[in-house]
Design goal:
Two copies of one chain form a homodimer. Chain A is an alpha/beta fold. Chain A has helices at 7-14, 18-26, 33-46, 51-57, 78-94, 107-119, 137-143, 173-186, 202-217, 222-228, 236-249, 260-271, 294-299, 308-323; strands spanning 64-68, 98-102, 125-129, 148-151, 168-171, 192-196, 229-231, 254-257, 286-290, 302-305, 335-338, 341-343. The first copy, chain A, is 45% helix and 14% strand. The first copy, chain A, has a six-stranded parallel sheet, sandwiched between helices. Chains A, B: GO terms for molecular function: DNA-binding transcription factor activity; transcription cis-regulatory region binding. Chains A, B: Pfam families: LacI, Peripla_BP_3.
């Protein structure tokens, strides 16, 4: 015992459970006024400092990392985060760490869980996924001195709205779509459409940017780029609709998509009269998806693959640097951008009509 | 503090880390002889009882449940366990519990982890997946009085080789394949093949049994059943090969498969000359898969769906009964067999040739 007060110290002295102490700190509305006052008095008396700051002083570590498990959306793109979870759990265990899961409806709810996870379950650190513009989670964790790393870049310039600089690992989506376009250009395609998400999502904008750069490099004029660029919500049905409209009005000979779901919809439109993936009909155009999901392998869809095992390993390296106290101020070494790879299958085999 | 010695008590008195105490208990070969003797003396002196037995006495619970995360095999069938994990995490949190993940190469390694997870991380209970004949994990947990539930039946008769009776939740695979056969029989099919796994796996034998029962009920003679029944390893390529052989020699008009992977292989053979799922060719026969994976939805494959959210909820109910001490001796109520449902799509729409 090093004599520093812990949550347990407070709980014992106030004769309440650890959960009650956590509630006093994180959800005071759940605690009766009398208990609230008594516990707060003990916290002041013993000088207990909740999570973050206190954790930096502790020598004992739980060696447990928290990860919010996100809802599976259509079961296709969600597979990427499931594969990241598998890789993270395996690689964490090789380094002597465990992964604890939790769920939350949104960022605010996720932040609401951090306190309990730190105080009651004594987690050492967090891995955050699905970073986005205006993400409030990273600021909270920095303020409370909690070690963390994100799988996904911060999508605001450093300093925006008090967003902190922090360690992250991400995959270069623009490099992936650029490689897809160049692969199609090598096969003779020039009219290459992009089926992506509405502007404003960091991941989606990044994937669109790679397509745009490669198309501009090939000298495609702006009015043609505007016609070939479609934004739609994610989904197989949405991809099918986008493809039908493009084929009718713009007549591309190839499609690069922001997700395998969209690409499957494009494929369905191309391969059949009635939008059924397995029905008959010759390939009318080439298609490349993104994320190389199991569905892509099953139906022969070319796709951009993320190096998820490497991403998990690098994320853990960044966390362990922080936990061993050797991180210092964040530097460029704390930002790891990994290159994806293009997996070529039958769906992109067709050359443009001559 | 109730005065009962904990792992922490032993660690402090022996001036070692909690991890070292755990190693003394679970991996003594990792500990120097001198330390081993000192820690063992303290354990005897304070009367510390590791996990199991000691846990029953404790009033403080971690409210953490352990789950071994299995390796994804082909990314298609593994999706079922990922969906179970999502459901378990969400439903556990609603009940005030968290899920901690770990990995292990085999059952022995999994058992090797239980001790540390119980002693150092103070887990309350485990959820086991992929039960199989001769499963040694359940006996270990029963011996050590650790609460657990399995998602999957014990595949030996109770009492075999000291296998304990224990709480479990499972999905009735035989009912699923029987429903698939009856759906095909209703459309006029009589020559319905079964493409399943080699005999000996509980899950595989169960799925084969449902097909067999429904075929026998329709009066199909044994020599025909033998011809229509194929056993192969799981996989798309394996399903494609099995379908080619059956079509050449036995000429079924419909296929029921033990997995979506096998069914996708059958579909690939049916829909194209070159084994490509998305190539042309009219449907020659009807196909039903098992597990209703995202791939099945994407390619229009009929499939048997497991009620995974319900399975996770019932598994947690059985665990919480044990943790609240109200379980008593296992009864039939501790065995929950859920009915799957058949999801009909285009792949099973074709009627037999007249």
């Amino acid at each position: 015992m090093d004599g520093r007060p812990t949550l347990e110290t407070v709980a014992q002295r106030a004769a309440v459970s650890r959960q009650t102490v956590s509630n006093v700190l994180n959800s005071p509305h759940l605690v009766r006024q009398e208990t609230l006052e008594r516990v707060r008095a003990v916290i002041d008396e013993v000088g207990y400092r909740p999570h973050g700051a206190a954790r930096q002083l502790r020598t004992r570590r739980s060696r447990v990392i928290g990860l919010r498990l996100e809802r599976t959306v259509d079961g296709i793109n969600g597979a990427v985060l499931d594969r990241f979870l598998h890789a993270l759990t395996e690689q964490a265990q090789l380094r002597g760490y465990r992964v604890m899961l939790f769920t939350a409806h949104d960022d605010a709810a996720e932040i609401g869980q951090y306190g309990e996870l730190l105080d009651v379950l004594e987690l050492d650190a967090f891995v955050l996924t699905s970073t986005h513009s205006g993400d409030p989670r990273t600021a909270w964790l920095c303020e409370h001195d909690v070690p963390f790393v994100t799988f996904g870049r911060p999508w605001d310039p450093p300093g925006t709205d008090g967003q902190p600089d922090h360690p992250w690992v991400d995959v270069d989506g623009a490099a992936g779509t650029r490689a897809a376009v160049e692969h199609l250009q090598d096969a003779g395609h020039t009219e290459i459409a992009f089926v992506g998400w509405p502007a404003g999502s960091g991941v989606g904008d990044d994937r669109r940017a790679g397509w745009l750069r490669a198309m501009r490099a090939a000298g495609v004029p702006q009015h043609r780029l505007d016609a070939l660029d479609v934004a739609t919500e994610d989904g197989i049905a949405e991809g099918a609709v986008a493809a039908r409209r493009l084929l009718e009005h713009v007549r591309p000979t190839a499609f690069v998509c922001a997700s395998d779901s969209l690409a499957l919809g494009v494929l369905a439109t191309l391969r059949s009269a009635d939008g059924d993936l397995i029905a008959s009909g010759p390939a009318q155009a080439a298609v490349v998806g993104f994320d190389d999901t199991p569905v892509a392998r099953a139906v022969g869809l070319s796709s951009v693959a993320q190096p998820l095992t490497e991403a998990a390993g690098r994320a853990l390296d960044l966390l362990l640097q922080q936990l061993s106290g050797s991180s210092g101020a964040p530097t460029r070494d704390h930002h790891v951008l990994l290159a994806p790879s293009l997996v070529v299958r039958e769906s992109s085999a067709s050359a443009p009509p001559t």
